[in-house]
Design a protein that fits this description.
Helix content is 3%, strand content 37%. It is mainly beta and 443 residues long. The chain has 2 domains: 274 residues, Sandwich (Jelly Rolls); 137 residues, Jelly Rolls. The strands form 5 sheets. Strands 1-16-20-13-10-15-8-7-28 form a 9-stranded antiparallel beta sheet. A hairpin with a 6-residue loop joins β21 and β22. Belongs to the homogentisate dioxygenase family. Its cofactor is Fe cation.
Length: 443
């Protein structure tokens, strides 16, 4: 969208005023007796007040009316959004989904919230420990209604169709191959421009941060200056027919009514903001001698657990890059893992499974479930000439990796009718190459 402005940096202390109201941020204090322009001061806290300073997250919003002015919340249907991880029996199989169906606008108008579908997850929003993985499939913009997640952060990965997200902090346009994070408690509304689909990683109880770089050094992977957050923008709009606030709370949906737009923040300052990032800016680290590095070198964002080095969830991408490793099987190796691996594809073909794994689809390889290259990939790459080559050109696959053992929902296994029952067959042709008479070559 032409004309949208952003501020750059990850976790910075930002300040922003809508240019229509210069001087709207109070000087020298957060909560004066009377705010400039007669605004209300309201703090949004994303951490406990007593968190150490590096982890303390809060922003001050200066708004025309405070968010407390609304009618009571009442329960509304959740559709296919759930936190019930016991709907169906556990399934340890390798799972793959065909592209999830987007409803046709000529048949039924579905906005972002109505189009939320939970695929899998684990943990509990009440105890503030867990994750949910959702798809959104929608075809119409949200009108006079917004969404607020009291349970956790949303990391949104558009796959088809750009989305214009209006937040209390301002507007962001997010296109496929970009991501955005709407942190816990932030109200937002989504405009779409046709049939739209994407993935969401929801994290309860932790916020996303940049991974530590360790021996990589000071630079690399996702650089802080490439993250963008919106600038202040307000609307002073009365809605006599009622504006609906939808609140996700303890895994359920609730709605309340008010007679004004919630996007009435004239100015704000703080370090607790929504933000977006373009995946093409990721500075890839890769092998330049031999062997295949672990996918952790492709981590964009991580939500840490209390165990050192163990994530509640990592967001990992597999971007275009050079493959140059000598005497090495270059694609991903065969693997069993103590983490759950949910993969999605934004565009192109994933190198380890060029057929069957399609943009808008997904796969789940659960804890200790074996997985790896399909037959064609193994055979081709076992005999390929190992010259420098571009890998994943024109593609972008990603992974939500978690230390939680995720349960798949009834919607994911049955209702969506997109589960690929033939997935296991891609490994069926694998055959033994064992030769007991093999001898090492004489050098």
């Amino acid at each position: 969208m032409a004309g949208l402005k952003y501020m750059s940096g990850f976790g910075n202390e930002f300040s922003s005023e809508d240019p229509r109201c210069p001087g709207s941020l109070p000087e020298g204090q957060n909560n004066p007796q009377v705010c400039p322009y007669g605004l209300y001061a309201e703090q949004l806290s994303g951490s406990a007040f007593t968190c150490p300073r590096p982890a303390n997250k809060r922003s001050w919003l200066y708004r025309i009316l405070p968010s407390v002015k609304h009618k009571p919340f009442t329960a509304v249907p959740c559709g296919n959004l759930t936190e019930n991880w016991n709907e169906v029996e556990p399934d340890p199989n390798q799972l793959r989904w065909l592209p999830f169906t987007i409803p046709k606008s000529t048949e039924k108008k579905v906005d972002f919230v109505a189009g939320l579908h939970t695929v899998c997850g684990a943990g509990d929003a009440k105890s503030r420990n867990g994750i949910g993985i959702h798809m959104y499939t929608c075809n119409t913009s949200m009108v006079d209604r917004c969404f607020n997640n009291s349970d956790g952060d949303f990391l949104i990965v558009p796959q088809q169709g750009e989305i214009l997200i209006t937040t209390e902090f301002g507007k962001m346009m997010v296109e496929p191959n970009e991501i955005c994070v709407i942190q816990q408690g932030m109200r937002f509304s989504v405009d779409v421009f046709g049939e739209t689909r994407g993935y969401i990683l929801e994290v309860y109880g932790a916020h996303f941060e940049l991974p530590d770089l360790g021996p990589i050094g000071a630079n690399g992977l996702a650089n802080p200056r490439d993250f963008l957050c919106p600038v202040a923008w307000y609307e002073d709009r009365n809605v006599s027919t009622g504006y609906t606030i939808i609140n996700k709370y303890q895994g359920k949906l609730f709605a309340c009514q008010q007679d004004f737009s919630p996007f009435n923040v004239v100015a704000w300052h703080g370090n607790y903001t929504p933000y977006k990032y373009n995946l093409k800016n990721f500075m890839v680290i890769n092998c330049v001698a031999f062997d295949h590095a672990d996918p952790s070198i492709f981590t964009v964002l991580t939500a840490k657990s209390t165990r050192p080095g163990v994530a509640i969830a990592d967001f990992v991408i597999f971007p275009p890059r050079w493959g140059v490793a000598d005497h090495t099987f270059r694609p991903p190796y065969y693997h069993r893992n103590c983490m759950s691996e949910f993969m999605g594809l934004i565009k192109g073909h994933y190198e380890a499974k060029e057929e069957g794994f399609q943009p808008g689809g997904a796969s789940l390889h659960s804890i200790m479930t074996p997985h790896g290259p399909d037959f064609d990939c193994f055979e081709k790459n076992s005999t390929a000439e190992l010259k420098p080559e571009r890998v994943a050109e024109g593609t972008m696959a990603f992974m939500f990796e978690s230390s939680f053992s995720m349960a798949v929902t009834k919607w994911g296994l049955q209702t969506c009718q997109r589960l690929d029952k033939s997935y296991y067959q891609c490994w069926e042709p694998l055959r033994s190459h064992f030769n007991p008479n093999w001898k090492p070559s004489k050098k």
